[in-house]
Amino acid sequence: MTPFLPSARAPPTSTCPPVTLSRFSHLAFAVVDPPTTAPAQVVRDALVGEGVTLVHPDDTPNSHYFEHEAFVTVAIKDYSLEHWNRERIVSSAGPYANPYSADPVCVQGVDFSIVILTVKAKGVADIPFEEYFKNHCGVGSLARLEIVDVKLL
Fold first, then answer.
1. The pLDDT value given to residue 2
2. Peptide bond preceding 34 in cis form (omega within 30 of 0)
3. Which of 2, 3, 63, 73 is most buried (most C-beta within 10 Å)?
4. What PANTHER family has UniProt attached to this entry (predicted)?
5. d(CA 53, CA 20)
6. Terminal Cα-to-Cα distance of the chain (whole angstroms)
């Protein structure tokens, strides 16, 4: 299945205001079967008269949706220095929330005491108290998460 929508997850380096995704509920996905490496031409051909079946995103077998209900700012304590760069800091939130922004002081290499990360989450209950990291040397580390601020959407 090839979606024709940009990803709902904001890029890690952007700071986006909260938006209501309901305005996109009228859009559908094109399912190209059999799969092809260049689906655009197949979809164009189908749209000019070869027959097309539109499927609402909620009706697809792999759909999942959850409403972001809060911006949660977390302080990540004991963050592993091996992972201390913007990409890894932001992607560390992936298992429990969508990253929104990382505090610039934390990613510029000025202060290595704590990571401040803002995420969009379904709720405060989705934020774990601990986060495990596999370090490059094979030894794991444990970081503690503390909720600093919550703004309900």
1. 41
2. yes
3. 73
4. OS01G0890400 PROTEIN-RELATED, OS09G0372600 PROTEIN
5. 27
6. 31
**Token digits of residue 68:** 């972001």
CA distance 61 to 1: 10
Residues 6+ apart with CB under 8 A from 32: 1, 2, 39, 42, 43
Rounded-to-integer distance, Cα 9 and Cα 4, Å: 14
Q: Which amino acid is at 28?
A: A
**Residue 102 contacts residue 90 (beta carbons within 8 Å):** yes
**64-99 tens-digit pLDDT:** 666 778 999 999 998 888 778 888 888 888 888 888
* Residue type for position 42: V
Query: Which is nearest to 128 in space by CA: 103, 105, 146, 110?
Result: 146
Strand partners, 72: 119, 150
Bridge partners of 40, per DSSP, are none
Percent of the chain residues topping a pLDDT of 70? 67
**Counting beta carbons within 10 angstroms of the beta carbon of residue 131, is it exposed (0 to 12), middle (13 to 18) or buried (19 or more)?**
buried
Q: CA geometry: angle at 22 spanning 21 and 24, to 5°?
A: 75
Confidence of residue 11 (pLDDT cuts 50, 70, 90): very low
Strand ranges inside 12-127, DSSP E: 70-77, 98-102, 114-121
